[in-house]
Amino acid sequence: MLAFLIRRIAEALVVMVVVAFFAFSMFRFMGDPVANMMGPDATIADREAMTKRLGLDQPFPVQFAAFLGNVAEGDFGVSFRVGRPVIDLVKERLPATLELALISGLFALVGGIGLGVYTALRRDGLLSRAIMAISLIGVSLPTFLIGIALIYLFAVELRWLPSFGRGETVRIGGWTTGFLTGSGLASLVLPSITLGLFQMTLIMRLVRSEMLEVLRTDYIRFARARGLTTRAIHFGHALKNTLVPVITVTGLQLGSIVAFAIITETVFQWPGVGSLFISSVQAVDVPVMATYLLFVAGFFVFVNLVVDLLYFAVDPRLRSATTGGH
Amino acid sequence: MTEPLLSVRDLTVQFPTRRGLLTAVDRLSFDLAPGEVLGLVGESGAGKSMTGSAIIGLLEPPGRIAGGEIRLKGERIDNLPAEAMRRIRGRRIGMIFQDPLTSLNPLIRIGDQLVETIVTHTDRTPWEAKLHAASLLEAVGIPAARARIDSYPHEFSGGMRQRVVIALALAADPELIIADEPTTALDVSVQAQIIAVLKDLCRDKGTAVILITHDMGVIAETADRVAVLYAGRLAEIGPVADVISRPHHPYTRGLMGSIPSLDGGRDRLEQIPGSMPRLSHIPPGCAFNPRCLQAFARCVAERPPAYRADASEAACFLLDPAMSPAEAAR
Ligand SMILES: Nc1ncnc2c1ncn2[C@@H]1O[C@H](COP(=O)(O)OP(=O)(O)OP(=O)(O)O)[C@@H](O)[C@H]1O
Ligand code: SF4
Ligand SMILES: [Mg+2]
Question: Topology versus the membrane, per the UniProt entry (chain B) (predicted)?
């Protein structure tokens, strides 16, 4: 178990270094950082001093090593656009994105599993067919269109829910939360649905097909032959076996929520790291872009690690395979 | 015979398909006495599994019972509501499938699978059920049963898993067990042990068994009577010794001829030429007529009913007492 954990963490670190390499390469290939930082009227001497100060005269591997060292210490450089440390900018924006991702992730997970199980068990029901048909739209419509449609309906026409921003937030330590105020919660509804809908549909379709598959297995047939109740067969046996293979894809879907948040945050003017990224792209603010890349990759790697551990907890075959039996 | 435990009358199982209605089991009738072991044999596709599934009420749609009736101790069970049939499954009729590797839920401890079955059908508390589960595992010959009750299925070998499956099928003391090729998927070396476990336990508990198998050797050793199916129809049924040594139906004769004799001699008599017809191409009259060396005019025109012959019954016009010798000679 411990060996497995250590190996997974080592793998995660390798992935992060590779991503860091790409992030770092952005500095080289996207514009001239010195020109970006100093503006057009700096002297040649100033430029050279700056180049030296930033370590840009060093060979590439040395620069990369220095970059990794800084990142490990939490120093992601200074934003070209705002002139403040990137880490501070991200810290301000992170709670908004993480809270949005959490709620839409829960929405996708609970809704996806619930509807997936329902449509699998009521395979030929009218409601099931309707859900499946609608879900096809959910998968094929682009996120921003869904967002705009929701805004039009619930914010503009019905005026039930706010269409932009986080509402009132409460500050707890370094964290600003929207969970504690009415307007904060109301503001989460539309963006969470927009962001989670695609993932929910995918999870639902996956759970449905996996569950149908499991319901055809011999052990379910044998459970029937033993006269277990339908309830026990569906929820005690089939659901469990359905969720094991679903864990991976679901984990990746939830990971990608953070990446997809860019669009949703833009549509809803949500003050998270996604919209920070968009404004940075417009200004070619490379340190912020690089940090964002690292952040999204880090989130993915983290989710993957959690997924692996979950597998471990859920599947006894895996447990004894990697620990060499009991 | 005393009142039969199970009575199957004119059982017909059909599948609607794109190419029409297929009849997998065709007006099959037989009785089973309490505690009796009935072997069910026939080529692949003869309808053995369908018969078993129909009896326990687990036909996969679109397959369905299209006619006839099934009675358990006189009570009809083929048309019961789903919930009533569920209560019969496991409690009064158990079933064992071919593949022990896939019959157990891989994510649930075997002890929990046993407890769940026992608690569903009896008044035992979970704690009593667990004790009972351990004794069942002991009874099917799992070594160190108490210690292994919390193991997962993958921690057992194929043979041990099939023992667990037998324990599960017997957990609520059913009156009838349908065992559908319970050893086909197992290593040859453990097949005999598993059959022995099943046979001994059922004898001790007085459980009747329908044993579906391709292995006439197993039938000879285990069963009291044997039913031979051909293309979904009963060809012959009778006491094991009679059917093996004095088969009456030409198909049974061919079948017995193609079994190597016990002394290993090379008296393989005749192999039946041809193969069993597909369900969509069952010939009119006797289903066996294209392959039967003794077929005559009547065999193509009418379907033979079951005729009594010694202690057996066989569906062949040759056994019709009213048939003229001249007709048969043609
Ligand atoms: N879903 C289905 N649709 C149409 N025909 C089917 C279906 N399932 C089974 N059958 C047919 O029903 C017939 C009887 O099948 P069954 O499984 O009872 O045979 P069996 O005697 O158990 O054979 P085996 O020895 O191979 O297990 C076969 O000819 C099979 O092709
Ligand atoms: S009824 Fe006719 S065809 Fe059928 S087995 Fe008897 S002799 Fe052969
Ligand atoms: Mg079969």
Answer: Peripheral membrane protein
